């Protein structure tokens, strides 16, 4: 992961939180039950996921401050999935309040970590990024899932700060998502030797 000052990412995350909260506050009960852009998830599912993701980060960071190497979700992915399912059907006002409150708790955890010098940065829990990488990974969650809500926020709205990191990160991992023939066809296009293939198949995005 590139060496990016956590303070700069926290500032970008605060702005991203405000944008997604503005969207959440405009959601009605009817809209909350609508399908999102994610398969089998409603708008309520996505908003709940955004909130529980914030709490997961705060849980891991609070543990690091105490010297404990904790996973974001103590019960693993099954707990994460159940928490999202349990919260998805709540009234729109509760969903928006949850997004706001969980974001503030996370921002407070970042403030405590910054003041303490991001202690125990080597702790990984069950993640693949250090403690100081939390703001950057949270930024990804908010920006990607804000688009997934399908409520007017689009990739064209992604800020340059996020775009610059995510594009480089996604391109770096692109070879692992391509098969042999598709790798050659894409390389031919990148080197100006062919038209952009319209039928390239990519493996899962991680």
Number of strand segments: 0
Shape from CA axes? globular
Helix content: 55-70%
Q: Please, what is the average pLDDT?
A: 93
Number of domains: 1
CATH homologous superfamily caption: dinb family like domain
The low-confidence runs, each spanning 5 or more residues with pLDDT under 50, are none
| CATH fold-level assignment | Four Helix Bundle (Hemerythrin (Met), subunit A)
Termini, distance in Å?
A: 14 Å
CATH class: Mainly Alpha
Largest sheet: none
Q: Beta-strand percentage?
A: under 5%
Architecture (CATH level 2) name: Up-down Bundle
> From the helix content, strand content and strand pairing, which structural class follows?
mainly alpha
| Rg over C-alpha atoms, rounded to the nearest angstrom | 18 Å
The ordered H/E elements are HHHHHHHH
| Number of separate helices | 8
């Amino acid at each position: 992961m590139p060496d990016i000052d956590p303070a700069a990412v926290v500032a970008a995350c605060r702005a991203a939180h405000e944008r997604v909260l503005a969207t959440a506050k405009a959601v009605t009960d009817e809209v909350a039950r609508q399908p999102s852009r994610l398969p089998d998830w409603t708008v309520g599912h996505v908003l709940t996921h955004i909130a529980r993701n914030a709490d997961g980060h705060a849980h891991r960071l609070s543990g690091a401050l105490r010297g404990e190497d904790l996973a974001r979700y103590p019960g693993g992915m099954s707990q994460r999935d159940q928490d999202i399912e349990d919260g998805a059907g709540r009234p729109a006002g509760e969903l928006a309040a949850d997004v706001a409150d969980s974001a503030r708790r996370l921002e407070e955890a970042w403030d405590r970590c910054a003041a303490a010098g991001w202690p125990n940065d080597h702790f990984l829990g069950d993640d693949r990024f250090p403690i100081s990488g939390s703001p950057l990974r949270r930024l990804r969650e908010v920006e990607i899932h804000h688009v997934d809500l399908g409520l007017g926020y689009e990739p064209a709205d992604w800020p340059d700060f996020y775009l610059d990191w995510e594009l480089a990160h996604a391109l770096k991992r692109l070879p692992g998502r391509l098969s042999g023939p598709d790798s050659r066809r894409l390389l031919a296009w990148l080197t100006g030797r062919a038209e952009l293939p319209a039928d390239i198949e990519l493996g899962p995005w991680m």
